[in-house]
Design brief:
single chain, alpha/beta, six-stranded parallel sheet, three-stranded antiparallel sheet, 9 helices, 9 strands, globular, binds adenosine monophosphate
């Protein structure tokens, strides 16, 4: 594993297909699963650790976001990463940056609750794509709206690479793995898996039992509140562009964001086609 901190050193990967896994670090097995998938499909595997200040709003967790470079390097090495890019904020943003803004897809859901978030994501991902020049880049479906935003950016800006979107890795109790799970207290951690359980229950109600979408979603929000969550949204959307759906028509996904104390959890589930 070669650790690279300078953009100028990101050259000469050698021959073959270059795969890229961008992350914010505090790596867990969800990140490692993207790396392992990429390892099997590429000749050179590059990953990045960069907590991108541009995608955090005022009052969000940029300062307290977990940072664990030594442990991350071990996880990346074990997952087969060849080059781990760990730039400083100054290296990525030497001055106020030109930005990338993806319209339409970013108005709703995460975009509504985190204004500016997706401009920050699109900008850093575009910059990282230009720095690393990968043939293929890997993203997790756990961040479903982020996948749609990046797919749209790549299309709109004619960026020449392939995108792969990979399944969400979960803890044994169903909780989607996330660096932010480290914020949960023991009591909150016990409640957290209910978010995924609710997604499963509502998926069955809508797709198998034929329950009316509005009433199923209202019940889901209520159950989450009863369990101690503060739901931001719990919605049925078209999987490709995240348009809200009033009726079940595949490809559809349930998407959810809910807070437990100061920790915000997101998750989603694709309904059967
Ligand atoms: P992050 O470090 O949170 O920005 O995530 C880096 C990449 O890992 C993103 O493409 C995420 O969607 C993906 N990712 C995060 N959590 C998981 C998970 N539980 N399973 C699969 N991929 C994930």
């Amino acid at each position: 594993l070669k650790i690279v901190r300078r953009i100028a050193e990101l050259d000469h990967f050698g021959r073959g297909r270059v795969g890229f896994v961008p992350t914010m670090g505090a790596l867990h097995d969800g990140h490692a699963s993207l790396m392992r998938t990429a390892r099997g499909e590429c000749d050179v595997l590059v990953a990045s650790l960069f907590v991108n200040p541009l995608q955090f709003g005022p009052g969000e967790d940029f300062e307290r976001y977990p940072r664990a470079e030594a442990n991350d390097s071990e996880i990346a090495r074990n997952a087969g990463v060849d080059v781990l890019f760990i730039p400083t904020v100054q290296e990525v943003y030497p001055r106020r940056s030109t930005t990338v803004s993806v319209p339409e897809l970013t108005d709703r859901w995460e975009g509504a609750y985190r204004p500016g978030h997706f401009d920050g994501v699109a900008t850093v991902v575009c910059k990282l794509f230009n720095m690393v020049a990968p043939d293929v880049a890997y993203f997790g479906l756990k961040d479903l709206q982020q996948c749609a935003v990046i797919r749209r950016m790549v299309e709109d800006l004619n960026i020449r690479l392939e995108l792969r979107f990979c399944a969400t890795l979960r803890e044994a109790d169903g909780l989607a793995m996330s660096s932010r799970n480290a914020y949960l207290t023991v009591d909150q951690r016990a409640v957290a898996p209910l978010l995924y359980r609710q997604l499963l229950g509502t998926a069955t109600a809508i797709a198998s039992d034929g329950q009316d979408v509005d009433s199923a979603l209202a019940e889901a929000r209520m159950s989450l509140e009863m369990a101690g969550f503060v739901p931001d949204y719990f919605a049925l959307v078209s999987t490709d562009d995240l348009r809200p759906l009033d009726e079940y028509s595949p490809p559809a996904s349930l998407i959810a964001a809910a807070r437990l104390g100061t920790t915000r959890l997101i998750d989603n589930l694709q309904l059967p086609r």
